[in-house]
Write a structure and sequence with these properties.
8 helices; alpha+beta; 3-stranded antiparallel beta sheet; elongated
Amino acid sequence: MIKTSLLRRFFRFAGLATLISLGVSSCGLVPGTSVKRIPPGYVGLRVEMYGSNRGVQNATVSTGRVWYNSYTEEIVVFPDHVQYYILTAAKDEGSPIDESITFGVGGTSVNADVSLSYFFNTEKIKDFYGKYLKDPQEFKATLVRSETRNCFNQKAAGLKPEDIVGNKQGELLTSVQDCLNDKFESVGVEFDSVGFVSKPRFDAAIEAQMTARFQAEQQAIAAKAQLQVAQAEAERKLAEARADAEAAKIGASTVTPMTIRLRELELQQQMIEKWNGVLPMYQGGPAPFPTFDPKAAAPQN
């Protein structure tokens, strides 16, 4: 009797548990409800999948824990911070597949590893999703790369291969950034920067031509520099010669009897300072003391 009562009680509780399990969703307390946590630095976009409000026209941006009906709604998560994307041929950086950009320039093609940074304007996420129906990863994997390639093809059309690695590289990258913003800024995606990760790659023949042209330009620059040095040296020597000639001319114009007499007295003073007090001996007595005085050398009448 006791065993029968226990069995009835057991089955009663088991049946109740079964009913509860059938009425409770694995994601929420109400069938079809789910919860998604929006981490810091991200926002959630509520999208109506069915009904008269289908789409994102009445969507709201939420943060924190978001409860939604998984049967009729979807929460799409967008980053609220700058995104960095490297389109490179290397398999150990960015994507495991070759995502480098190839575009035309000067009748040939160039392959380049490109870095991008962009962010989503959270106030326009509705417009973005309403137009493209893509989450951030789908946008990155498809539209970003294809539109970047298109912009490079457009903006590099009038350039030469050497321009890509020369003084017009910065101008090209800025124009590509402007091109991407023209395409996406209206729906809330703004590009902060576009750059080359490494030197763009050309065909071997083009590389050889560019190298030869660069070497010739460097030699011309070196020759021009040497010529400028030689000209500067010649001008310096000419200036010195002119200065010496002018000094000699000035010196000659200032010679007067007074300056000659002053020089004679200076020489005589130097001889006196060096004389040891002994006059040279000649037959008939000592020689007279030497003098530079013209009057003293004159014969006596």
